[in-house]
Specification:
The chain is an alpha/beta fold. The protein contains 16 helices and 17 strands.
Length: 456
């Protein structure tokens, strides 16, 4: 997995050293020797991961990181602080600035490559979500990148798996003022618990007695619904080979004992923030997909969806030698409802009509709002006789019970006219099928409304 790595350092020798290590692993390296230059490169989108030196003249690494993480256009960029400073206070300051990880000089090559690969995977996933979410603004949705970047990572649900009672209690006390924390000492049923109860970050001790913690991690990561769950592992030393193995398996972060409580809080808040960032992008993507295929008022499929799927359903059904029927439904005298009771009442009637249609049809049928007060229903594997019976059932369900309007204070009597057309073997024109059903609908209108007519 290749990517563009930005190395930011005011010492040329340090840049050359890191560049040699990364290019040997087929990464593309971009360099900057000061903060403003680094910010410019990031704003132009010319890197995937930033390796950022802390001690630089003018604008130090902490300020560069803070600026990157506070801007919606660059907040998603993974930033690794590269520093000779290794005190808990320095790490805490970097985490508070938004850093995703730390590498301490002299840099361990295995740790460097493992962390870069892990962050590149995260960046590629985020890029895909960002690209799709950015398109949603053309549909009138709010800026998803700004909303996602505003997440502070607080009030998360944290699950700690630790069989040392004292250690678990200390972590819970440290985190309780910022998050909701649960502790368990037996991970036997962990996957089921995560699926049923959920959490925003899983903290797993690698030193669990009588349990292979990495095996548990693999079980969590192998489940589709848990692949994006942040996992932080606890180890005794950075030399523990299991830490690197855990990172290769998709673990997001690690802490070395003794654990500094401030660093624990900062790292978990970072993971919660990342998770919610991606969730906001996914939610926005889902909303944009729904806008593309759903009618916003009735929540039925829209006209575009109907036209797209009618042809494929017809081809599939007719190819099997079965019949497919189309119902075109129009509400009688709907303009009078808007004129006499207002458009809000008209909307109430349309929503109620959509709900009644849902209750009558099968799960395999497509119900769509075609436009205005007109609806269509596509019924695969349905002959004319069965389709006409469904249409009559719809007509009766609309007529027999008044439609509530004005928050239920009034009821309106509503009727519909329905045209039915059926396509069988040798029939392959969706436009012709719709025209036939539409002509049958107008025949029902001409005959006095509130009735079902079959296409000739």
């Amino acid at each position: 997995m290749t990517a563009r790595i930005l190395i930011v350092d005011d010492v040329f020798a340090n840049i050359r050293l890191l560049e040699a290590r990364l290019t040997a692993e087929y990464f593309t390296v971009v360099t900057a020797m000061n903060g403003p230059q680094a910010l410019d490169i990031c704003e132009r989108g010319e890197c995937d991961v930033v390796l950022l030196d802390v001690m630089m003249p003018g604008m130090d690494g902490f300020e560069v990181c803070q600026r990157l993480k506070s801007a919606p256009a660059t907040a998603h960029l993974p930033v690794v602080m590269v520093t000779a400073l290794d005190s808990p206070a320095d790490r805490l300051r970097g985490l508070q600035a938004g850093a995703d990880d730390f590498l301490t000089k002299p840099i361990n090559e295995v740790a460097l490559l493992t962390r870069v690969r892990s962050l590149v995977r995260l960046k590629h996933l985020t890029d895909e979500l960002r690209a799709r979410a950015a398109n949603s603004q053309t549909l009138g949705l709010p800026d998803p990148l700004a909303i996602a970047a505003a997440e502070d990572g607080r009030n998360g649900r944290i699950l700690i798996v630790e069989d040392r009672a004292n250690a678990a209690d200390r972590m819970k006390v440290a985190l309780a003022q910022h998050h909701v924390v649960d502790c368990i000492d037996d991970p036997t049923d962990l996957v089921n618990r995560l699926l049923t109860e959920g959490c925003d970050c899983l903290v797993m001790s690698l030193g669990l007695q009588n349990v292979d913690a990495l095996r548990i991690v693999s079980q969590v990561r192998s489940h589709d619904k848990l692949r994006n769950l942040p996992i932080l592992v606890l180890a005794e030393t950075t030399d523990d080979a299991r830490v690197l193995r855990a990172l290769d398996m998709g673990v997001n972060d690690y802490l070395i004992r003794p654990i500094d409580r401030n660093e624990l809080v900062a790292r978990l808040s970072t993971q919660v923030r990342k998770k919610r960032y991606q969730e906001r992008l996914r939610e926005n993507l889902q909303a944009s997909m729904e806008l593309a295929i759903l009618d916003p008022l009735t929540k039925l499929h829209n006209r575009r969806y109907f036209h797209t799927h009618l042809a494929s359903l017809m081809n599939d059904t007719v190819a099997r030698g079965a019949a497919i029927s189309l119902l075109v439904i129009d509400m009688d005298h709907f303009k009078r409802i808007n004129d006499e009771h207002g458009h809000d009442s008209g909307d109430d009637v349309l929503r109620e009509c959509a709900e009644r249609l849902r209750k009558v049809v099968r799960g395999i049928d497509i119900v769509a709002r075609f436009g205005g007060e007109e609806f269509v229903i596509v019924m695969p594997d349905t002959e004319t006789f069965a389709a006409s019976r469904v249409a009559e059932r719809i007509r009766q369900s609309i007529e027999k019970t008044p439609f509530p309007i004005q928050k239920g204070q009034k009821g309106l009597e509503v009727t519909v006219s329905i045209g039915v057309a059926t396509a069988g073997e040798g029939f392959n024109s969706p436009d012709r099928l719709f025209k036939m059903a539409d002509e049958a609908l107008y025949e029902a209108k001409r005959a006095g409304r509130n009735q079902v007519k079959l296409a000739a």
